[in-house]
Design a protein that fits this description.
Layout: E1 6-8, H1 18-25, H2 30-38, E2 42-44, E3 47-48, E4 61-64, E5 83-86, E6 90-95, H3 112-120, E7 144-150, H4 153-164, E8 169-177, E9 184-193, E10 201-204, H5 209-215, H6 217-220, E11 225-237, E12 250-257, H7 264-271, H8 294-303, E13 311-319, E14 326-330, H9 335-344
Parallel strand pairs: 7-13
Antiparallel strand pairs: 1-4, 2-3, 2-4, 5-6, 6-7, 8-12, 8-13, 9-10, 9-11, 11-12, 13-14
Helix pairs in contact: 1-2
């Protein structure tokens, strides 16, 4: 990039999109400029502009302030870890809600990887790359529970093969709206990026075979990946107003994963009208806010103090790649979900 980071817009520039205008006199890509604008690093006469489509005005000075570069490798940080099991080949962690697994945009430190680098020193598998050392699988930032991390490449490969073959056993517990019908079943769909919101995933329809034959890979490019969740209703709380007797307001559901797609359980349960309590991404934003029964009022009050999706990775089972012994690890409900369950019992 050249040294030019500011420019006074002229009459011919007026009306142009800001991100497009900036590309004309800087050596930055439009996508990079868009990110800088959204991050508040572009100013107009000293005032931050955060909308890339803002129209340029004549006689206004636009300035690009480049932030300090991010370190190429994550740093070790002394962050407490709840270690469930550890040997010379792997480590099993009970991850708290609110902790991101590995560094990414918006979360460059304070992650599980940062904590592991301090705890394990140099003994983490390098297969995942510098940003994901030892990481075999992930759970969402606001999901709690158990996950395993590899310390050496042989262990990493062995664990990855089990996850790919769907032989690793993963059980989750969640609290969701309504009750699934039937009470126990298997959800198999394809999941891909949401067409209108890149931060979300969505169930996508199968592309008919004759369409694929006619249009080839272009027709199948948006088919997503196969995702399979086995679920079982455990118990219900409250009574839906106007619903038949035994129709709960909230259900406790056990989910066992065959695949591990991004946001899989959250997307699948929303797909069957059982969105997770506290899920701000896939839940209906107006749910329970207009309470029309005593139970809904109580639930609304309970959710005011619950700040995440009610999802917990309860158990994890796999064959140790080195010892060949089957290992099973369980994690009790964390405090916030245990409190929520107690309140649900009072609906």
């Amino acid at each position: 990039m050249n040294d030019l980071t500011e420019m006074l817009a002229g009459e011919d520039d007026a009306g142009k999109r800001l991100d497009k205008y900036l590309t004309e006199w800087s050596d930055l890509s439009r996508s990079r400029l868009k990110a800088l604008i959204l991050g508040g690093h572009v100013r107009a006469n000293g005032v931050a502009i955060t909308n890339p489509s803002t129209k340029v005005k004549d006689e206004v000075e636009y300035t690009i302030n480049l932030p300090d570069p991010i370190a190429a490798e994550p740093i070790a940080q002394d962050i407490p870890l709840n270690v469930v099991f550890e040997d010379g080949h792997l480590i099993v962690i009970n991850k708290p809600a609110g902790m991101t697994v590995h560094p990414a945009v918006g979360n460059w430190d304070g992650t599980l990887v940062n904590a592991l680098l301090h705890h394990c020193k140099d003994s983490l598998s390098g297969i995942g790359g510098v940003l994901r050392p030892g990481i075999v699988h992930r759970i969402d930032k606001d999901t709690s529970g158990v996950l395993v991390v590899a310390k050496d490449d042989k262990t990493h490969i062995g664990l990855s093969e089990q996850f790919a073959a769907h032989t690793a056993e993963r059980t989750y517990i969640c609290f969701a709206r309504n009750a699934p019908s039937p009470r126990e079943g298997r959800i198999e769909t394809r999941i891909a990026r949401h067409p209108n919101d890149r931060k979300k995933m969505a169930v996508v329809k199968e592309v008919p075979a004759h369409i694929i034959t006619r249009f080839g890979s272009q027709a199948s490019s948006n088919k997503g990946k196969v995702a399979v969740t086995n679920y079982k209703y455990i118990t219900g709380y409250g009574q839906q107003k106007g619903g038949s007797i035994g129709t709960p307001l909230v259900s406790k559901i056990e989910c066992k994963l065959e695949t591990g797609r991004t946001h899989q359980i959250r997307v699948h349960l929303a797909h069957i009208n059982c969105t997770l309590l506290g899920d701000q991404t896939y839940g209906k934003t107006g749910a329970f806010k207009t309470a029309n029964s005593v139970s809904e009022t109580k639930l609304k009050n309970s959710l005011n103090n619950f700040r995440r999706q009610a999802l917990h990775a309860k158990s994890l089972g796999f064959i140790h790649p080195i010892t060949q012994k089957f290992l099973q690890f369980d994690s009790p409900l964390p405090e916030d979900m245990a409190i929520l369950e107690k309140q649900l019992c009072e609906l």
